[in-house]
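Entry 14. Two folds queued back to back today. First construct below, sequence then C-alpha cells.
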Amino acid sequence: MALVRLLLALLVLLAALPGRAASRTDSLKPLTVYFFDVGQGDSALIVSPSGKTVLIDGGPPEADDRLVPRVRELVKGPIDLVILSHPHLDHLGSLAKILQAVGARRFMDPGYDHSSEAYRKLLSVVDKKVGQVMTPTPNPSAPETLLTIGLGEGATLTILSPRAPQDPFLTHTRSDVNANSIVAKLTYGETAFLFVGDAEPETEEYLLRQPIDFTSTVLKVGHHGGRHSSTAPFLAAVNPQAAVISCSTNNEYGHPTTEALQRLGDVGARIFRTDLQGEVRAVSNGTTVTLSTQKGRSAPTVVTGQVRGPVATGPMRSRADDTSSSRVVRVKGTLSERGDTSPAMASGAGPFVSLKGSEVFHLESCSSLKRAKTKERTMYSTRSAAVRERRPAKDCNP
C-alpha cells in the first residue's frame, strides 16, 4: 500500500509540472498576418483565430494582378473590415478591384479628405460594395477611450490615431495626409502587431504624449522605411522584436533608408523586407510569433511576445460618466451620411442593433434585420448599453 501511495503521489506531482501547464498555449488557434509583396506600397491581411479578416491597405495599382488573386485565395467570403490607412495611391491602388472581387462588410478610413481622382473612384466603389462605412471617431459617450474592435478568441484591434474631432487632425506637417494615417495595434495574448501607415514624426510625437502601451512584437515600419518616420523615441516605446518594411526593389525613393535601418537596428529589431524576401507571413500563438518569408531566409524566425497589459494605460482625456457605446449609423447610405460605430466583430458577442423607431434590439446577424427596409439604425457595442435603452427582441434572443 505504501508503494501504491508513493506512485500516486508521483503521478500528481508530474501532472503539476510547468511543462504540462505550458501546453495550454499549444491549443490556442493561430492568428496570422500576411504582409503582401506589392512593390512600392503597403498591404497586409489579418486572419484572426476565429476567422475574422481585416485588410489594411491595398498597395499600388500595379499590384492588381498578384494581389487580387492572393486575397481571393486567403479570404473565403466578404472581408470583415477593410482599412485604408490614408488616401495615397500606393495604399489604395488595388482596393477597388479587391472590393469588386471579394466584397467587404465594413470600410474604414481616417476621414481626412483628399482630392485625388483615385480616392474619389474608390469611395464610389465603397458606396456600392460595402455595407457600412466608418471613421475612427471616438465614442461621444466616452471620448477618452480608444476605438477597439473584437476579432474573436481574445484578439483585438485598437485604433490609436487619428481621433478627430475629439483631437483635431494634424496640420502643417511634411504631409498632412501621411501624418493623419490610421495607426492600429493588433493584440493577441502576449503578442502584438503595430501598423502605422505612413505616419510622420509629428504623428509619433502626438502618440507618445498619450497614455498608451506601444510595446509590440512586430512593427509594420512607417513610410516604407523612410528617414523621417520611425524616430528613435517612438521605436524605443514600441520595442519591436521584428520589423517589416514594405517597398519595391531599387525604388526611386531610396527606401528603406540607411537612417531608418540604423534606428531599427539600435532597438534590436530583426528586419524583414518585401523587396528582398517577398511576402512575409507572421503567425502568433499568443505567446510567440513565427515569421516566414517567400524567399531569402532558409528557416522561420521565432520572436517572443512581451505584452502584459491593456493598450490604453489611462484615459485619453477626462473620463465621462456614461461609458455606453451607441451611435446612429447608415448602412448602404451615401458617403455624405457616413456613420461611425465600434463594432465587436467577435461571433455571438455583438454588436447589437436597433432599427429607427423600434423599442427592441437585435443581434447584428439577426435575419429580421436583413428584411428591414429602413437604413437608419443604432449600434451598441455591448449588451448592457443596449439594455439601458431597448429591450431584447424575441426572434433572435440577443
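Second construct, same run, same settings:
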Amino acid sequence: MILKASQRGSGQNLAVHLMRLDDNEHMSLHDLRGFASDNLKDAFREAEAISKGTKCSQYLFSLSLSPPADARVPVSAFMDAIATIEQRLGLEDQPRAVVFHEKDGRRHAHAVWSRIDADTMKAVKMSFFKTKLMDVSRDLYLEHGWKMPRGMLDSAQRNPTNFTLAEWQQAKRQNVDPRLLKQMVQACWSRSDNQQSLVRSLEERGFFLAKGDKRGFVVLDHTGEIYALPRMLDLKTKDVRDRLGDGANLPSVEATRKSVAARMTPAIRRHIDESKQQFQARSGKLGAYKAEMTQLHRASRVKLEQSQKLEWDEENRQRQSRLPRGLRGIWHRITGKYQEVRRANEAEAKATLDRQALARQQLIEKQLEQRAVLQTQFKDLRRQQAEQLLELRRDVGRYLKFTRSDQPAQAREVSLGLRLER
C-alpha cells in the first residue's frame, strides 16, 4: 500500500473532508476508538479540546492507505496494516478513527489518531514517521505479493513525471493529462542543447519559451497558460540556466501571449473548441452512467445492511431465549450448563458476524469490478482527448514554423523587387 501521512490541526475541516459524499462514491465510518462521541466531527472536537491544555497545534496524525488499483483488499487487511502502523509509531493507545472511501473503482482508507496523551497531556512524538511508513509499505507489498513501485525499490528510479497537486489542478483546467505535458517538455529538453534549439523544439509542439516575472524560465501553451520550466523538467533553476543562459533575450510573458494570439489561426481555435465540446458531451454521458451506478450500489448496500440487522436481531433473540432465568437459570449456573449455552451463543454470534462481513466484502468487490469497467471507459476517453489536443498543439506548432520560414521568403521577394526596379 502507498502510505501518506501528516501531522495537522483543523480537525473540523478534516472531518468534513473525510465525510464527503460528493467527491466519493461511497464513504463509511468504520471505527471510532477512544472517543466519547459517535460521530467524526464531535470526536475531533474532543481531540482539539484536550489539545488546548498543551502547546501542540498539530494535534492529529492523519494517514491514508491506498492499495494497488487492481487489488481487492478486505477490511481485515486494512485494519491489520493500521494496527502495525500504530505500533511502529507509538500510537497503540491513542484515540483513533478509521474511514473508508471508494472512488473511480478503487477503495482506500483513512486513519486519524489524536496525538495528545490524556494522562500525561503531552503529544506523541512522530520522529522519522515517513521513514517508518516507507518500511511498513514495503513489507505490505511483499506480504501481499503486489508489484512494488520502482521508486520504492530505488529512489533514483522515481517516475520523472510525478506532479504536485498544483500542477495537477492546472493541467486539469486544460483537460490534458499533466504527465503527457511533462513528457513532451522533457523530450524537447533532452533533444536540445541550447536556448535556440529548445525554442524550436517547443514551438513545433505548440509551446513557447518566455521570461517569467519571478519564476525565471516559463513555458506557455497556445491558451497562454504558464508552466514553470524547471518544475516541468524536475530540475533546479540553476541547471536550466547553465544550458539556457540568463534568458535576458527572451520575450516577456505578455509579449509572448500577444504573439501567440496574433499568430493563432481561427481554424485551429475552432478545432480545439470542438474537441473540448465533444469530450464534454461524451464525458457527460459517462458521468450520468456513473451517477446511476452509484445510486444503485448505495441502495444495494443499504438493503444488505438492513437485512443483516434484521437477521442479527432475530438470532440475538433466539440466543437470549436459550439462557434460562429465575430458579432454572440458577440451577443451570450451578451445573455449568449456563456457561455451555453462553459459549455456544458466543461462537454462533461470531460466526454470524464473520458471515455478514464476508457478504459485505463480496458485495463491495462485485461493485468495484462493475465500477472498474466504467472507469476504464473514462480513462480511454481522457486519453483520447489528451492525444487529440496534443496533436492540435502540434498543428499550432507546424503553422508557426511555416510562418517563420515564410518571412525570409517575403524578404527575398522584396529584395529582388528592389533590384529589378534599379
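Quick look at the second one. Residues 176 and 214 are 25 Å apart (CA to CA). The chain has 14 helices and ten strands.
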